[in-house]
Structure formats: structure tokens, C-alpha cells
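Input set for joint prediction.
Command: fold jointly, output C-alpha cells.
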Amino acid sequence: EPEVTQTPSHQVTQMGQEVILRCVPISNHLYFYWYRQILGQKVEFLVSFYNNEISEKSEIFDDQFSVERPDGSNFTLKIRSTKLEDSAMYFCASRAPGGTNYGYTFGSGTRLTVV
Amino acid sequence: AQSVTQLGSHVSVSEGALVLLRCNYSSSVPPYLFWYVQYPNQGLQLLLKYTSAATLVKGINGFEAEFKKSETSFHLTKPSAHMSDAAEYFCAVSDESWGKFQFGAGTQVVVTP
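C-alpha cells >
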């Protein structure tokens, strides 16, 4: 079964450093998403991406965050200057055209720890 | 705007007993509803989804959920709990246009022998 692949599975970074979280969505999917889950809290929507541009973003997704699809296969989330409160599990998701009927697949996540 | 409320952050059940996890939703459009399971240090695995077909939805691992519009509920059940069902369970709602999910706060299930 097709999978959404996220790398790395765990990343530790120092406060103020830039991090890039990588995702390889399912190949025929066109809609891409990032979510995050702070330890012990619920999963929160960050951003959706379609046709090489952001479709929607939450209030969490401030100027420190950016997304891009640099090469047609990878989908990345960049945090420019990490803060302690950015420590969380970050999930990538992708879905095929046609609405959520057609499947919405999450990756296994990247655990980001900011020290 | 959409939201989900999961009643009970922790549920403890005996092995072999009924598992019942409650989810109520709020949506301005006909909702798409989902249940996900998360095992420790793992990602989100889809258990089942409601997409306006049958109101009783069967999922993996013996779970099922019933969509009740009048009660705005989508409760998850399993007749007989197994030790392997110990995990966190998330209810989520989406509309069709964007597919953005709003997740509930989650319910941690503990299964006792």
C-alpha cells in the first residue's frame, strides 16, 4: 500500500537554528498538508498546499514557517529560527484529487526536539 | 467552522469488554468524519471514515462507528477489547472542499487483563 514517507523520524536542534522536515507524498496525490502534535495535546492543522501554493494556513503557521515542493516529489516544512515551543511531532499528509473520499494518508511523523 | 469534542480523555476497559469512545461534532456542512488510532511513538492510522454513505461504518481491527445526525455524534465501538487496542484514539472532522482536518483532543485507552 502506498505510503507517505517522512524523514528524519527524530531531529534534535538547538534553539534559533533552522530545520527542514521532509516528506515524500504518495505519487499521484495533489494536496499536501502539515500538522503538528505537541506532546500530550491534540493534532493541529498547520498548512495545506496545492498547485504549488499555500491553500490555507492556521494562525500557528507564522512567518517562521514555510513550505515548498522543490522537485515535484518532496514536500518540505522549514522552520527558520526554532523556539522551544516548536518541539512537537510533525505529520505530513497527502490526498488524491476528488475530496476526502479518495483517501488521506498521514506519514509516521518527525519528532522535533528543540533544546 | 468545524470542531469535534471527544468525551473522556482516558478510558479504561477490561480485556473482552465493550470499548465505547464518544465523539460529537459541529459542522456547518455535511461532515466527513474519521477515527484515527495512534500507538506510542507512531503515526496516525486510519481506523474508519464516514463519507455520507452508510451510517454504520466498519473499520479495521473490529472497530465500527455510527453516524447519528440528530445527535451530531460519531461514537466508536468495539465489542470485545484486546490488549493490543491500548492506544490513543482521535476523532476528526473535515469538509469536502479543502480536506483540512479538525481533530479532537484524543482518548487514551487502557486495557486491563
